[in-house]
Amino acid sequence: MTSIRLRINGAAVADEVPPRVSLADFLRERRNLTGTHLGCEHGVCGACTVLVDGEPARSCLMLAVACDERAVETIEGFAGDRVIATLRRTFHQHHALQCGYCTPAMLITARDLILRKRTGSEREIRDGLAGNICRCTGYTNIVAAIAEAAQEIGREAPNAQ
Amino acid sequence: MKAPPVDYIRPRSLTEAVDLLAHASVEARVIAGGQSLLAMMNLRVASPRLLIDIARLPELLGVADHADTVSLGACVTHAAIEDGRVPDPSRGLMPRVASTLAYRAIRTCGTIGGSLALSDPAAEWPAVLAALDAEVVVYGSSGRRLLECTEFATGIFVTRLASAEIIESVRIPKRSAETRWGYLKLSRKAGEFANALAVVVADPAGEYYRAVSGAANGAPLVLADTSRLLAEGRRDPDALRGAIGRDLNRASDRHFDDFQRNLHSVASMRAVQQVLV
């Protein structure tokens, strides 16, 4: 067991983990943050995407012990986030999910695309989503929901980062 | 699946990391971004007993902008290169390449040194750094040594890195403002590993011309005839296509089937055309 101290969704956490435990399993099984989903466990499906020190990362390809002294944000931690709130509404309006398994990571990835201004065209959104697999929707409605959220955020704060 | 049981150490210096690696009594692996190693461990393709985490070592995160070269620490991430957060010696080639490499959530963790150390034949950096005539700075118990990127990989997942050596940095020559480059990655889906990869760098002021084929069933393949024709200023497509064909045929050890050979030929020609435009 290795001791780690990190911040999860803003709160300081201290815990002990065996080194082989992924950040995803640590979040789900030790912290009960089950909004982070595991699909493939080798970095292809994107369902486990969280933020580590503010940047999207695959929590299946990161050891919990390597997150010592880092800050992790999971889908449960975006309650006050304006971009996620907008995305949640446009995903609802466009029916951008069916089973919902990929949705938490879709939202986190879409938020990152919007903040980095990578939503200029349908092609750009689709390229940006290439690392998040959805087996239900065929992506059309997800792309439409992200495009609308990006436009709305852009109108509100054209120069915001 | 889940990774097998493993021990984990985060050394405080590069010297300590090399010592741990040299004196480990069990199979030890260096881990940087872990974007390939942890996938391999989860798939149980790799089962090291000890992980030595170098991702946060300050010596490996350094960046230096010299007169003729840029030095990037081994643990500089693909995302840092994509975003222009580190100096770019390549006149835009490296940020462009980084933006096509896997997915953003991989690029924020994966490192340039890790990509070289693994030398997946289908990876971008080994081919691109060979095309840029970069050198790898390697650190081990007996000190530093320099290896040319064109000779660093010797085969599929095989490099000249010794068992107790760690890549410290990559030194990339700066290209002149006249530089043109071509880059073409053929893959069925954005972010996947390449089926064929072509990189062409043409710097008339530096009298430097090099075409490299990547994802070529082995180490990056320098297209010698094609590079020479570009250096001679040849622009006719048939001559260049012929040179690409000769270069690919000469690489009989790659055992390209007709489909692969055609993919590499098309990728190389399109990358060459980007330089000629």
Sum up the structure in keywords.
heterodimer; A: 161 residues; alpha+beta; Ubiquitin-like (UB roll); DNA polymerase, domain 1; 2 domains; five-stranded mixed beta sheet; 35% helix; globular; B: 277 residues; Uridine Diphospho-n-acetylenolpyruvylglucosamine Reductase, domain 2; Uridine Diphospho-n-acetylenolpyruvylglucosamine Reductase, domain 3; Enolase-like, domain 1; 3 domains; five-stranded antiparallel beta sheet; four-stranded antiparallel beta sheet
Commentary on this structure:
The complex is a heterodimer of chains A (161) and B (277). Chain A is an alpha+beta fold and 161 residues long. Chain A folds into two domains: 2-77, Ubiquitin-like (UB roll) (Roll); 82-156, Orthogonal Bundle (DNA polymerase, domain 1), CATH 1.10.150. Chain A is built from five helices and five strands, in the order ββαβββαααα. In chain A, strand 3 (49-52) and strand 4 (55-58) form a beta hairpin. In chain A, helix 2 (82-93) crosses helix 3 (103-115). The longest helix of chain A has 17 residues, at 140-156. Chain A is globular. Chain B contains twelve helices and 14 strands. With 277 residues, chain B is α+β, with helices and mostly antiparallel strands. The model of chain B has no long low-confidence stretch (mean pLDDT 97). The longest helix of chain B has 19 residues, at 258-276. Chain B folds into three domains: 7-53, 2-Layer Sandwich (Uridine Diphospho-n-acetylenolpyruvylglucosamine Reductase, domain 2), CATH 3.30.43.10; 58-173, Uridine Diphospho-n-acetylenolpyruvylglucosamine Reductase, domain 3 (2-Layer Sandwich), CATH 3.30.465.10; 180-276, Enolase-like, domain 1, CATH 3.30.390.50. Chain B is globular. Chain B starts with 6 loop residues before the first strand and ends with a helix. A five-stranded antiparallel beta sheet of chain B has the order 4-5-10-6-7. In chain B, helix 10 (224-231) runs antiparallel to helix 11 (237-250) and helix 11 crosses helix 12. At the A-B interface, strand 4, helix 3 and helix 4 of A face helix 2 and helix 6 of B.
